[in-house]
Amino acid sequence: MVSPRSSSAPGKLRIIGGSLRGSRLSVSDTAGLRPTPDRVRETLFNWLAPVIDGAHCLDLFAGTGALGIEALSRGAAQVDFVESDAKLAALLRENLARLKQDVRVHVADALRFAAQDDGRYDIVFLDPPFAADAWTPIAQALEMHERLAAAAWIYVESAVSATFELPPNWQPHREGRAGDVRYALYRRAGASAKL
Predict the structure, then answer these.
(1) To the nearest whole percent, how much of the chain has pLDDT over 70?
(2) Residue 45 above 80 pLDDT?
(3) pLDDT for residue 29 is more than 50
(4) Alpha-carbon distance 4 to 126, whole Å?
């Protein structure tokens, strides 16, 4: 999740709910790092509250790992973090170790990971660098390589001005805006309507 530079990096980022609530994550001063704001994370996890417990999650373009760590804090059974920047991945591992979270951090390209991983995920956090315009290819890769559970939920964060094409079986569920950022939750065809 690296994109236009945000005033929220470097420094600390807090987990806002669940068992790790109040925990602080160290945030790198990596150029372009754009952590998902507290208010957006709170809204997203309110949406996901009925399905997060026990979920297997994938945090692609993890950056700080705030989305995946928030999922763990709120009861997700497993999160795979994928980050191509080795320094960001190392800091994420440090944060996870300090929080006593034994999960996998993959230093990998998201498209390559989608093609080679054998996991299937209930919830995917898709927040690529805005400049990379990666939404369409990574969404196609997740479908093509069968990385999504039949009833998967997919969170997509993008610039309001971004245009991309998602698979037709990803049905819009809820969305919001925060400044120049659009955030949306999709449900894969066949998912329960209990949210």
Answers:
(1) 87
(2) yes
(3) yes
(4) 16
Beta-ladder partners of 80: 58, 104
Cβ proximity of 148 and 120 under 8 Å: yes
Domain range holding 117? 11-188
Cα(127)–Cα(134) distance, integer angstroms:
9
Q: Are 134 and 159 in contact (CB under 8 A)?
A: no
Given this model, what pLDDT does residue 16 score?
86
Tell me the C-alpha distance between 6 and 78, whole Å: 29
Determine the pLDDT at residue 8: 40
Write the CATH number for 101.
Answer: 3.40.50.150
Do the Cβ atoms of 126 and 61 come closer than 8 Å?
Answer: yes
CA distance 145 to 85: 23
Q: State the pairing for strand pair 56-60/78-83.
A: parallel
Nearest-angstrom CA–CA distance, 30 and 154: 26
123 CA to centre of own chain: 9
Residue 6 forms part of a structural domain: no
